[in-house]
Backbone:
C-alpha cells in the first residue's frame, strides 16, 4: 500500500506539473511534449486504479495519434507566435470572464454533493466483482446503457466539429490552386504531349 501511495503521489505531481508547463511554456513544441508527458502520467494513474483498458486507450489514441499530430503540425507550420501573443492583452477580459464562468460551474458541481442529498447515490451504482467481469466489459455496460444518449451526443458534437473543419479548409480563397480531378481526366494526349523532331547536332 505504501508503494502504491508513493506511486500515486509521484504520477499525480508530475501530471499536474506537466499540465502547468503545457500552458506556461513559451515554445509550442515544448508544450506538446509536456502534454504527452501528462498523458503518460494519467495513464499510469489509470493503471493504479485498475482501469488498464482506459490506460491503453489513452496511450494509443491520445499519445500515439492526437499528441503526435499536434507535434507535427506545430513543427511543420511556420507560425509567428510573437505576433500572436501581441493581441493577448485585448482578449484578456474575455478570457477572464470565461474563467470565472468555469469556476462557477465547478463550484456548482462540487456544491451539489452537499446541497442535494441524493447526488451521492447517482455515482454509487453496484459494481461487479473484478473477477467476474473484465474492465472493458464493465466500461461498456456503463457507457452503452446508462450514458448511451450522452455518448451519442458526444459523437454528434465530433461530427459537427469535423464538418466545420472541412468547410473552413475547403472554402474558396483567392490565389489558392486546387486540384481538379475532372479536368485531369478529360485532358487529351494532344493537349499535353508534343512530339518534336530534333536533328543530330542541333538543339531545340
Residues:
Amino acid at each position: 500500500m505504501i508503494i502504491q501511495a508513493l506511486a500515486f503521489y509521484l504520477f499525480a505531481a508530475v501530471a499536474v506539473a506537466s499540465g502547468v508547463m503545457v500552458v506556461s511554456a513559451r515554445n509550442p513544441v515544448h508544450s506538446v511534449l509536456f502534454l504527452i508527458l501528462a498523458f503518460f502520467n494519467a495513464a499510469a494513474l489509470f493503471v493504479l486504479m485498475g482501469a488498464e483498458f482506459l490506460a491503453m486507450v489513452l496511450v494509443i489514441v491520445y499519445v500515439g495519434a492526437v499528441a503526435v499530430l499536434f507535434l507535427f503540425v506545430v513543427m511543420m507550420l511556420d507560425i509567428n507566435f510573437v505576433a500572436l501573443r501581441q493581441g493577448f492583452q485585448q482578449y484578456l477580459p474575455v478570457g477572464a470572464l470565461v474563467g470565472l464562468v468555469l469556476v462557477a460551474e465547478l463550484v456548482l458541481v462540487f456544491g451539489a454533493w452537499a446541497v442535494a442529498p441524493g447526488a451521492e447515490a447517482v455515482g454509487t451504482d453496484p459494481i461487479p466483482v473484478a473477477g467476474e467481469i473484465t474492465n472493458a466489459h464493465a466500461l461498456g455496460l456503463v457507457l452503452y446503457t446508462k450514458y448511451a444518449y450522452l455518448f451519442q451526443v458526444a459523437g454528434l458534437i465530433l461530427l459537427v466539429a469535423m464538418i466545420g473543419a472541412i468547410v473552413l479548409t475547403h472554402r474558396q480563397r483567392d490565389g489558392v490552386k486546387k486540384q481538379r480531378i475532372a479536368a485531369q481526366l478529360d485532358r487529351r494526349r494532344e493537349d499535353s504531349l508534343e512530339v518534336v523532331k530534333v536533328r543530330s547536332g542541333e538543339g531545340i
Notes: The chain has ten helices and no strands.
